[in-house]
Amino acid sequence: MQTALGLLLLQAAYVYGCGTPAVQPNIDRVVNGEDAKAHSWPWQISLQSKHGSRFHHICGGTLIAPRWVMTAGHCIMPGSVMRVVLGEHDMTAQEGSEQIRDVLRIVVHPQWDIVHVADGNDIALLKLDKSPIMNENVGVACLPKAGEIPRHGAPCYISGWGNLYTHGPMPDKLQQALLPVVEYSVCSSADWWSVNVRTTMVCAGGDTKSGCNGDSGGPLNCMGEDGRWYVQGVTSFVSTRACNELKKPTVFTRTSHFTDWLNEVMTNY
């Protein structure tokens, strides 16, 4: 029997085509990150916090249903005023594609602990005050099946406005980079992340490309066998020494581990 949420997500996928951008991303050549094609990741959002009279980008996130954005738990700053910008590409320009929504409700995973990041559960949901207008610039991502684990070496892509390199500048335009998946048995080995990763996480990268400050909360985009893009992870953490440290791949919260929690929140809130 279909739940109301299941029907909602199915309807969104049918009407808007989850994981099927109108502008196809450039996946032919990615060397240590590059400007993404404008609006080729239409589910990518900018989470912004108000400082004084202005809003500033703090994290990424993923539109997973018309009124729901998935991001990282550590992106939530209690007491701050936050908003979501959809359809964004160039932070320095008013392109006419942007849609701004207030955050009506924030639900952080109850077991997230910012003091113990390696314990996992770095995930949160934001309910928007109203649905954005779905078009070629704004769309929903597909979510993987519960328990699904992306295969080792799967060509996935991180996207975001994070620092271009350790302590480097933040880009004006949305960036993307190819980050092949590193299976848990490798990522948890002694000379990689060891005990700092868990099976509830996904590792990707580990050579010269990685996420960096400002990418947090954004998606790990992986193409499924059906040709749609699935968000297999939520950007969680990198090495504290350098964003692109060898054998320290970017670590993501594994979306498919939290299927039940995501469904429960979106149903009850």
Would you mind describing this structure in some detail?
By secondary structure, the chain is mostly beta strands. The protein has helices spanning 4-16, 184-187, 259-268, and strands at 34-35, 44-51, 54-65, 68-71, 82-86, 99-108, 124-128, 155-160, 175-182, 201-204, 219-223, 229-237, 250-254. The strands form two sheets. It has a six-stranded antiparallel β-barrel with strand order 8-9-10-13-12-11. It has a six-stranded antiparallel β-barrel with strand order 2-3-4-7-6-5. It starts with a helix and ends with a helix.
% residues in beta strands: 25-35%
Q: Quote the distance from N terminus to C terminus.
A: 21 Å
CATH topology term of the largest domain: Thrombin, subunit H
The major pleated sheet works out as: 6 strands, antiparallel, barrel
Query: Strand order of the main beta sheet, please?
Result: 8-9-10-13-12-11
Total individual domains: 2
Number of strands: 13
Nearest-angstrom radius of gyration?
A: 17 Å
CATH superfamily name of the largest domain?
A: Trypsin-like serine proteases
| Helicity, as a percent range | 10-25%
SSE order, one letter for each helix or strand = HEEEEEEEEEHEEEEH
What is the number of helices?
3
Shape: globular
Kindly name the structural category.
mainly beta
CATH hierarchy class name of the largest domain: Mainly Beta
Give average pLDDT, whole number: 89
Overall CATH architecture of the largest domain: Beta Barrel
In terms of per-residue confidence, which ranges show pLDDT below 50 for 5 or more consecutive residues? 6-15
